[in-house]
């Protein structure tokens, strides 16, 4: 008999994980207490944007059961608690949602049902939920916005937090994990919970290093893009290292882990100077657009039209959490601003801007153009479009979406992270 898997919490993490499990051939119960949310999913109208998501929901609809009845979870050999954990502006997690959902799950399942906490929680959380009447595990999630389906279908490894990692995993749970054909690493609850933070800390360190040196390149005439290939060929760093400079750390998850690390360091008297340095560097680079814009000598009194392409914190997501574009927009109250993003949620956008319906609409009449998010479609903007539509010749392109040499050859003042033109 096919193992049935349950996922509770149909926000980003839970929905992506459930649909990916159905693509692997499992029958999946998709539970959320929000009836309205479930009804949208039944109609294949998810509230999140991810490549392949809707296509896989339709393809695997016979294996997906969307429900607001928690008793359906009783039919599942494995039940994942997988709501998104929101953070506030200080990067602190709100655990009320996962606590409430676990109360619902524990109220309907028995010890024969394996319950797995998939949401990111602080060290000590899972053990606090364990008792002799529960079969409870913690599993590290490593989804990336915009790449979530691929990450769920092709995981690099599974890190599993256990009460006792020497004990064999329950057969239904092991069967599900083995279907993904990757290493399975059992460890104590606290080690697995800290492993998630450790992964993100290493990523942040790479990002901070890249941003620090890219900023130096901008001042001394070096080009960070020329240096990256040399670093990728160093086996101690590697081809998959996070080496591209960016506009600070955004999205909420990485910030949360930095704040958690500082909190635990304060509690236990350990060193947090590296973490604080990463946060400081992130804030500095978030201001790159504004500082570059301001240093170019543009003033509000000139009444220039500012065009912004991209508002989400990165491409292939609808999330605006800690977006550098919004940091820049917060400095532009009173300016003539028009912006376009193919996916950004409109309810979180400031009022002092015009929302365009296309990139071309932003280009028309723009005196300054800012490409604030690296959406792939922006690479289709060519020189003819810029010359025909822009009235100014200033372009801030932090991620190098356009050809900098061509921009300079056509008389543009062009700015990119990690180099000077």
SSE topology sketch:
Elements: E1 4-8, H1 12-23, E2 27-31, H2 35-42, H3 53-59, E3 64-67, E4 78-81, H4 96-108, E5 114-117, H5 125-129, E6 135-139, H6 148-153, E7 158-162, H7 171-178, E8 184-188, H8 189-220, H9 224-232, H10 253-268, H11 273-286, H12 288-295, E9 305-309, H13 324-329, E10 336-340, E11 354-355, H14 359-363, E12 368-371, H15 383-389, E13 394-396, H16 404-409, E14 413-415
Parallel strand pairs: 1-2, 1-4, 2-3, 4-5, 5-6, 7-8, 9-10, 9-12, 10-11, 12-13, 13-14
Antiparallel strand pairs: 6-7
Helix pairs in contact: 1-3, 8-10, 8-11, 10-11
Give a verbal description of the structure.
The protein has 421 residues and is of the alpha/beta class. It has three domains: 4-188, NAD(P)-binding Rossmann-like Domain (Rossmann fold); 197-285, N-(1-d-carboxylethyl)-l-norvaline Dehydrogenase, domain 2; 288-415, Rossmann fold (3-Layer(aba) Sandwich). It contains 16 helices and 14 strands. The chain has helices at 12-23, 35-42, 53-59, 96-108, 125-129, 148-153, 171-178, 189-220, 224-232, 253-268, 273-286, 288-295, 324-329, 359-363, 383-389, 404-409, and strands spanning 4-8, 27-31, 64-67, 78-81, 114-117, 135-139, 158-162, 184-188, 305-309, 336-340, 354-355, 368-371, 394-396, 413-415. An eight-stranded mixed β-sheet has the order 3-2-1-4-5-6-7-8, with helices on both faces. Strands 11-10-9-12-13-14 form a six-stranded parallel β-sheet. Helix 5 (125-129) links the parallel strand 5 (114-117) and strand 6. Helix 8 crosses helix 10 (253-268), helix 8 packs across helix 11 and helix 10 (253-268) packs antiparallel against helix 11. The chain is globular and about 70 Å long. It starts with a strand and ends in a 6-residue tail after the last strand. The relative contact order is 0.09.
């Amino acid at each position: 008999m096919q193992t049935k898997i349950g996922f509770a919490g149909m926000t980003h993490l839970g929905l992506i994980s459930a649909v990916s499990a159905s693509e692997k051939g499992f029958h999946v119960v998709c539970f959320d207490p929000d009836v309205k949310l479930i009804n949208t999913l039944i109609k294949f109208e998810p509230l999140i944007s991810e490549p392949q998501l809707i296509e896989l929901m339709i393809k695997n609809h016979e294996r997906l059961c969307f429900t607001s009845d928690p008793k359906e979870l009783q039919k599942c050999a494995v039940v994942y608690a997988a709501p998104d954990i929101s953070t506030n502006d200080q990067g602190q997690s709100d655990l009320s949602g996962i606590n409430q959902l676990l109360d619902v799950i524990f109220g309907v399942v028995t010890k024969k049902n394996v319950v797995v906490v998939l949401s990111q929680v602080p060290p000590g959380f899972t053990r606090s939920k364990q008792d002799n009447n529960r079969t409870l595990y913690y599993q590290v999630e490593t989804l990336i916005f915009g790449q979530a389906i691929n990450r769920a279908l092709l995981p690099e490894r599974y890190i599993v937090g256990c009460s006792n990692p020497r004990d064999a995993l329950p057969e239904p749970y092991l069967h599900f994990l083995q279907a993904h054909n990757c290493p399975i690493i059992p460890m104590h609850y606290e080690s697995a919970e800290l492993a998630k933070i450790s992964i993100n800390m290493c990523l942040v360190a790479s990002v901070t290093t890249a941003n620090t040196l890219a900023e130096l390149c901008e001042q001394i005439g070096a080009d960070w893009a020329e240096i990256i290939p040399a670093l990728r060929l160093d086996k101690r760093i590697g081809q998959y290292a996070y080496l591209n400079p960016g506009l600070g750390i955004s999205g909420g998850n990485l910030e949360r882990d930095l704040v958690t690390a500082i909190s635990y360091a304060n509690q236990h008297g350990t060193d947090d100077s590296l973490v604080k340095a990463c946060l400081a560097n992130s804030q500095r680079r978030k201001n790159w657009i504004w500082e570059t814009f301001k240093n170019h000598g543009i003033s509000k009194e000139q009444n220039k039209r500012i065009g912004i392409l991209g508002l989400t914190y990165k491409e292939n997501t609808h999330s605006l959490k800690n977006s550098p574009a919004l940091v820049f927009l917060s400095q532009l109250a009173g300016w003539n601003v028009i912006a376009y993003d193919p996916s950004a949620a409109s309810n979180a956008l400031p009022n002092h801007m015009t929302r365009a319906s296309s990139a071309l609409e932003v280009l028309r009449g723009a005196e300054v153009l800012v490409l604030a998010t690296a959406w792939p479609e922006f690479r289709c903007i060519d020189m003819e479009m810029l010359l025909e539509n822009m009235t100014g010749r200033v372009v801030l392109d932090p991620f190098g979406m356009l050809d900098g040499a061509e921009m300079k050859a056509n008389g543009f003042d062009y700015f990119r992270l990690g180099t000077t033109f």
